[in-house]
Amino acid sequence: MAFPKRLKKIDDTEIKITHKYLVKQYDLILDRMKCTGCGQCSIVCPKDAILFGPAAAVYESKPKDLNASVVDTVDPDLCVMCGTCQIFCPFDAIQLYEDGELVPTETLKLIEHNSIPKLEIQKVPCSKLGRDANIYWEGKIEVTYEIPDDKDEFIKYYMNKCPGDCHKCEQICPTEAITFKEMEPAWESKIHIEIDDEKCIKCAACMNVCPQDNFKVWWTKINTSGPYNQIFWDPIKEKLLKQEVVLSKE
């Protein structure tokens, strides 16, 4: 038998991939009930092993009352069980286990060998989740949709597309920072999506789940300190600033 033996299990509550060696077993578990679909695990994965949807379609099949994940899958053949995703997940939704025991983040080899700098984390309460997010970045968000001059055109868009019966961005936002104006006030003000900048943490979950591509999120700074391996860290930092998840080809 060739080692490692690679396994994948997906159900309503988790995505689990396993690497079985002769005397060791490693499991990477994504808790779909904790995941908000922010995409940081996909962005930082050095092997591009964590894949998204199309996010809107994946999200549609999950229980909304639990704010379930829009991550589509994790490729067990690409994953190297390095724990990078665990380090950068703001919601503690993806974790690495060795022989059934959780590997504490501070004991991961990437941390011990200073492959990445220390993340300067601020705990931010998330009203939708009832728990805190680990925020280590600064960023910006904008609504990309511009209300047209033709009112009939806008009404059709509002009724049939955004928000229509969608509201995925509202449902997935962990801090409840997104609201929609009623149609007439939206038309008069030329603003139909409102974002509370004090609540918004720029996690990019809304951008990932929106079927109309009405959001643009980018990060301006990663708050870090301490030594790091430039060859390993610089590509991850560049991807984090761009906020572009890896999409499934299926």
Describe the protein in words.
By secondary structure, this protein is of the alpha+beta class. The chain has helices at residues 40-44, 55-60, 84-88, 109-112, 151-160, 168-172, 183-189, 205-209, 230-242; strands at residues 5-10, 14-20, 25-31, 50-52, 71-74, 94-98, 101-102, 118-119, 122-126, 131-135, 137-143, 178-180, 193-195, 215-222, 224-225. The strands form 6 sheets. It has a 5-stranded antiparallel β-sheet, with no helix packed on it. The chain is elongated, with a radius of gyration of 19 Å. It is built from 9 helices and 15 strands.
Structure characteristics:
single chain, 250 residues, two-stranded antiparallel sheet, Alpha-Beta Plaits, 15 strands, 28% strand, elongated, 2 domains, alpha+beta, 9 helices
